[in-house]
Amino acid sequence: MTPPFLRPRSTARIWLWTAVIVVLISLALAPVLTSTTCYDSPDPALSYCESAQLGFAGNQTNGWIWLAAILATGAVGWLLARRHKRRDPR
User: Fold this and answer.
1) Closest CA to 34 of 50, 46, 20, 18
2) Which keywords fit this entry according to its UniProt record (predicted)?
3) Which of 13, 48, 65, 87 holds its CA 20 to 30 A away from the CA of 80?
4) Residue 61, class by beta-carbon neighbours within 10 Å (0-12 exposed, 13-18 middle, 19+ buried)?
5) Which residues span the domain enclosing 44?
6) Tens digit of pLDDT for each residue in 2-29?
7) Under DSSP, is residue 54 helix (H, G, I), strand (E, B) or coil?
8) Number of domains in the chain
9) Alpha carbon of 75 to those of 15, 47, 59: distances in Å?
10) What is the spatial order of strands in the sheet that 33-39 belongs to?
């Protein structure tokens, strides 16, 4: 009996790992909170506010980076599944 890591890849396994990676990317990069910080000064011209999107871990993130990472992961998964399906004569 061959160990699981030596068995040939299946299309379902490729899509499963693609989905796992998408979930992990979403946990790391998805913007879920908006944080606003204001800095006051005695001189009104020097007072300002900053706004940032935060992920689950509290890291600053951007919705466009998250979307690009999800699309890139989906494209790589699709290409791997397509290439595997083309080589597999089943």
Assistant:
1) 50
2) Membrane, Transmembrane, Transmembrane helix
3) 65
4) buried
5) 20-87
6) 666 656 668 888 888 899 999 999 998 8
7) strand
8) 1
9) 11, 45, 26
10) 33-39, 48-54, 60-61
| Nearest Cα residue to 84 out of 9, 32, 7 | 9
**How many of the other CB atoms lie within 10 Å of CB of 14?**
20
Bridge partner list, 12: none
Radius of gyration of the chain (CA): 21
- DSSP 8-state code for residue 32: -
Structure tokens at 76: 């790589």
For residue 72, give both structure tokens.
Answer: 């890139």
Q: What is the pTM of this model?
A: 0.70
Supply the pLDDT for residue 88: 55
Q: At what angle do helices 11-29 and 63-87 cross, to 10 degrees?
A: 170
The token duo for 88 is: 């597999």
